[in-house]
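[Discussion] Sanity-checking designs against the backbone

I'm trying to build intuition for which residues belong where. Below is a structure token string of 165 positions. I'd appreciate it if someone posts a full sequence so I can compare it with mine line by line.
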């Protein structure tokens, strides 16, 4: 149902699938896959080990276009001091966020942690409005509500299953 919400937002087939919509679908798939991998790894690994493994995997995947023929626009360019500072800050913040996320999944129930993860939807809308002057469409709002409803339903149903009879 949550993925149906993503499809409502991107509306593939309503028009030619844009690169942005394709990237959004790929991102949704990647986030779901990442969550499954992290939850599986947390059974046997420490949060630090999970974050290190995911950072190495992400860096490896991100480097593929750099060394792939036909992706000349993605080849490495020398970075300025400002870009290095930004890259270091982004790396530190995302590593800290991933560490906190991993610890939350270790100590809390996934059914409680995952709905909190969906706060990125309204935050993304606010950033889009404030930073990019991009107003959400009716389809974006409707799809977001479907995604949120699916997350809330899943959290409630998993919690109900865990209650003693």
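Best answer:
Here's mine. Compare freely.
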């Amino acid at each position: 149902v949550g993925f149906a919400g993503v499809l409502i937002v991107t509306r593939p087939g309503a028009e030619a699938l844009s690169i942005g919509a394709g990237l959004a679908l790929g991102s949704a798939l990647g986030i779901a896959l990442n969550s499954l991998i992290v939850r599986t790894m947390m059974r046997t690994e420490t949060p630090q080990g999970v974050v290190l493994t995911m950072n190495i995997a992400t860096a490896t995947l991100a480097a593929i276009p750099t060394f792939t023929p036909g992706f000349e626009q993605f080849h490495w360019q020398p970075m300025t001091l400002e870009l290095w500072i930004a890259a270091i800050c982004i790396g530190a913040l995302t590593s800290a966020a991933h560490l906190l996320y991993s610890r939350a999944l270790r100590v809390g129930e996934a059914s409680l942690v995952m709905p909190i993860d969906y706060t990125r939807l309204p935050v993304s809308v606010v950033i889009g409005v404030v930073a990019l002057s991009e107003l959400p469409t009716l389809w974006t709002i409707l799809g977001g509500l479907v995604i949120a409803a699916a997350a809330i339903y899943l959290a409630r149903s998993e919690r109900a299953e865990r209650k003693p009879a």
